[in-house]
């Protein structure tokens, strides 16, 4: 995001320094050695950069697919032979993945890279940096990021190795999920006294006390899933630390969508922790907003924010790799009809994150697509298959494929490309001509999540605090999202509905589906598998090949 990343990019120098230090017989050609670097606050920031680069590297791709496309929230179907990609998307959607699934392997690699880089950086700073407040804060930030990666890994894979010592040569067996949970909790609690409690540019994209409390709250909310023991009062207490800070507030309806625009950043008063992205940075850039939209519609545009389906300044995009012509959609991540059913309030601003139905230009004129009879419908049998055919772009709900009840293939024609409602929450910057990469920062924790986590904890049996009730907390979010009347009562289904609307496309839906007991439901394109062991992913074959001490997760073959 913006210029926030510029300081982090200085880590390339430090990475070279650390690498050269492995050969002690190499003559020193730089004044920056472990005896002199890192020493200052600026050098500590530079040395820490690789950890945050790794955090953002695969977050918007690998991590998103594992957390979203294994649910009813998003699906990337195939179009003829396009996007088969070894069935990695099909397997995620239908819960048929194996230890060889590409996303399963990539997720393990992504998180272990963060942990390994954090271990190395913590070791280097621990040996080289002088004692003091700056060093203490930097170490606490790094340990919090490592704890975050372990939380994400525990959530995805269950029992995982606890390997926190850089340079250790012994391979680690998996630690029980409860042990990993306890480790993350202990690390965060130890880091909190040394983390900063300020917001704004200086701490944006860096761990603060409130990120640590957010991770704790999320862990405690899911403690019954992770450890078998509910910890709702602890979740409430962690949420209250953030609420009592007075630093955050719920974004009003008028600016809700703007939180996710390419112009977002430190000014967002809901962002507790966001991952910054910049389109000019080649490592780990946030491109799934632009990627989806290029492949959704084959055009770049600025969504008006006021009328769903309205566009400004559309231009043809020839660089998305989708073989585009005119304005036809291409291969998108769409949502299922089951997930879209959560958007059941016509007065809710969150509806505007979707493109649905007939599409128009901003002036209200229809968005027309020119093709041929056969290009529109691959099953066309009438006369003149090559004759021109023009239609208004019309996005239709995803139900079953017309190629068969069990098909994951939607076809390869205009009808197929129009199937599925598209999420445009992370609005792309249509003025960006550099690449499909985007500058939308991605929030990992928002204040509305804290409020709804506290509400759910109270509803599930936690002790109310600060004069709040589960109902009042849910309504405090809803009043900033819809003009409909406040709720008079809530149920677990209401809480699930609100979370689905509020955090669509923000990598929390798998976590929610499991906690609410909905992960084994049937939905989308023949997702009928209800095996409960799939609430965690298998240990990938690549990891087991390099560490024979790893034992496969229950339910998956070795």
TrEMBL record:
Domain (RagB/SusD) ranges: 269-556
One Pfam match: SusD_RagB
Cross-referenced PROSITE patterns: PROKAR_LIPOPROTEIN
Keyword Signal appears in the UniProt entry: yes
Every SusD-like N-terminal domain range: 89-221
Matching Gene3D superfamilies: 1.25.40.390
SUPFAM superfamilies the UniProt entry points to: TPR-like
InterPro entries: SusD-like_N, SusD_RagB_dom, TPR-like_helical_dom_sf
Domain of life: Bacteria
Localization (cell): Cell outer membrane
The keyword Cytoplasm appears for this protein: no
Keywords assigned: Cell outer membrane, Membrane, Signal
Gene Ontology cellular component list: cell outer membrane
Similarity comment: family membership: Belongs to the SusD family.
Stated name of the protein: RagB/SusD family nutrient uptake outer membrane protein
């Amino acid at each position: 995001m913006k210029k926030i990343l510029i300081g982090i990019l200085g880590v390339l120098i430090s990475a070279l320094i650390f690498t050269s230090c492995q050969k002690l017989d190499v003559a020193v050609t730089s004044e920056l050695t472990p005896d002199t670097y890192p020493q200052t606050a600026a050098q500590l920031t530079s040395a820490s950069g690789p950890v945050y680069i790794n955090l953002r590297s695969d977050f918007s791709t690998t991590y998103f697919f594992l957390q979203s496309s294994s649910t009813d929230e998003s699906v990337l179907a195939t179009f003829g032979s396009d996007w088969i990609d070894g069935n990695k998307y099909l397997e995620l959607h239908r819960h048929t993945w194996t230890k060889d699934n590409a996303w399963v392997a990539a997720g393990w690699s992504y998180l272990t890279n963060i942990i390994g880089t954090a271990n190395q950086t913590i070791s280097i700073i621990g040996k080289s940096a002088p004692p003091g407040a700056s060093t203490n804060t930097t170490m606490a930030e790094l340990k919090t990021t490592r704890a975050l990666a372990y939380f994400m890994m525990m959530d995805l894979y269950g029992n995982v190795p606890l390997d926190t010592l850089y340079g250790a040569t012994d391979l680690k067996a998996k630690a029980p999920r409860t042990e990993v949970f306890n480790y993350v909790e202990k690390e965060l609690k130890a880091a909190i006294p040394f983390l900063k409690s300020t917001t704004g540019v200086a701490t944006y994209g860096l761990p603060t006390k409130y990120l640590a409390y957010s991770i704790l709250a999320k862990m405690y909310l899911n403690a019954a899933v992770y450890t078998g023991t509910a910890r709702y009062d602890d979740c409430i207490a962690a949420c209250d630390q953030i609420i009592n800070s007075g630093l955050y507030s719920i974004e009003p309806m008028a600016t809700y969508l703007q939180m996710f625009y390419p112009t977002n950043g430190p000014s967002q008063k809901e962002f507790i922790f966001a991952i910054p992205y910049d389109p000019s940075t080649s490592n780990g850039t946030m491109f799934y907003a632009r990627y989806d939209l290029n492949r959704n519609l084959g055009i770049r545009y600025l969504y008006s924010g006021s009328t769903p389906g309205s566009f400004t300044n559309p231009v043809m995009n020839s660089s998305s790799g989708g073989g585009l012509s005119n304005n036809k959609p291409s291969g998108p991540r769409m949502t299922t009809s089951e997930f879209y059913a959560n958007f059941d309030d016509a007065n809710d601003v969150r509806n505007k994150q979707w493109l649905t139905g007939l599409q128009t230009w901003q002036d209200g004129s229809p968005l027309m697509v020119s093709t041929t009879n056969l290009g529109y419908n691959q099953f066309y049998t009438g006369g003149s298959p090559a004759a021109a055919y023009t239609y208004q772009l019309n996005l239709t709900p995803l139900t079953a494929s017309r190629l068969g009840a069990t098909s994951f293939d939607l076809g390869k024609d205009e009808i197929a490309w129009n199937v599925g409602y598209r999420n445009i929450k992370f609005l792309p910057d249509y003025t960006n001509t550099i690449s499909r990469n985007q500058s939308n920062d991605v929030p990992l924790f928002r204040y509305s999540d804290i409020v709804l986590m506290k509400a759910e904890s109270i509803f599930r049996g936690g002790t109310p605090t600060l004069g709040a009730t589960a109902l009042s907390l849910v309504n405090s979010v809803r009043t900033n999202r819809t003009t409909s009347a406040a709720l008079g009562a809530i149920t677990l289904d209401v809480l699930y509905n609100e979370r689905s609307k509020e955090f669509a496309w923000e990598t929390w839906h798998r976590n929610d589906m499991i906690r609410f007991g909905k992960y084994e439901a049937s939905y989308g394109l023949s997702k009928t598998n209800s095996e409960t062991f799939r609430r965690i992913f298998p240990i990938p074959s690549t990891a087991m090949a390099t560490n024979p001490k790893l034992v496969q997760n229950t339910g998956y073959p070795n």
